[in-house]
Amino acid sequence: MVIEEIQNKIHTQIPMTKLMKLELKDLNETQLITTAPLDINVNDKGTAFGGSLNSITIISSWCMAYYLSKKFNLENPSIVIFKNETKFIRPVTKDIICHTLIPNEEEQNTLLSKINTKNSASIKIHSQIIENDKVCVDFYGVYVIKT
């Protein structure tokens, strides 16, 4: 249910995600997995376009921040990216698979505590695009959540 809700939200409010065919595939106790086809996110070299890869990691991490806000029953959260770092390690030659890690319990508790006291908090979220068990893109983003 949560996956469908988040996917609906991004496809409605961030139309480019629908054009990129970004899909939320799985959410479990450790990660969110998102995918997008190579054929419409391709560059002139036949590999995934860097702009698409960057967008997918940013949006997937935003989805994680949104998931956490739902988990903590936050009403109408405003979620924005504050800063990020992306390393493009190797080309992506197949359909794109992004793994976004769920922040650990301590990070989540700190987030909730700050939101409860200041109505605002930030959290660092880590995403990786992996192909053939190798990291192709490594992303860290800091997201601010306000209520």
Give a quick set of tags describing it:
Thioesterase putative; HotDog_dom_sf; alpha+beta; single chain; 4 helices; 147 residues; 36% strand; Thiol Ester Dehydrase, Chain A; YiiD_C; globular; 6-stranded antiparallel β-sheet
Walk me through the topology:
Layout: H1 2-13, H2 16-19, E1 23-27, E2 31-36, H3 50-71, E3 78-88, E4 96-101, H4 105-118, E5 120-131, E6 134-146
Antiparallel strand pairs: 1-2, 2-4, 3-6, 4-5, 5-6
Helix pairs in contact: 1-3
Query: What is the correct CATH architecture?
Result: Roll
The biggest sheet, with number of strands, parallel, antiparallel or mixed sense and barrel status, is:
6 strands, antiparallel
Structural class computed from helices and strand pairing: alpha+beta
Instruction: Give the proportion of residues in helices.
Output: 25-40%
The fraction of residues in strands falls at 35-45%
What gyration radius follows from the Cα positions, in whole Å? 15 Å
CATH superfamily: Hotdog Thioesterase
Helix/strand order, N-terminal first: HHEEHEEHEE
Number of strands: 6
Give a verbal description of the structure.
With 147 residues, this protein is an alpha+beta fold. The protein is built from 4 helices and 6 strands. The chain has helices at residues 2-13, 16-19, 50-71, 105-118, and strands at residues 23-27, 31-36, 78-88, 96-101, 120-131, 134-146. A 6-stranded antiparallel β-sheet has the order 1-2-4-5-6-3. α1 (2-13) crosses α3 (50-71). The two termini are 23 Å apart. The mean pLDDT is 97. It comes from Arcobacter nitrofigilis (strain ATCC 33309 / DSM 7299 / CCUG 15893 / LMG 7604 / NCTC 12251 / CI) (Campylobacter nitrofigilis).
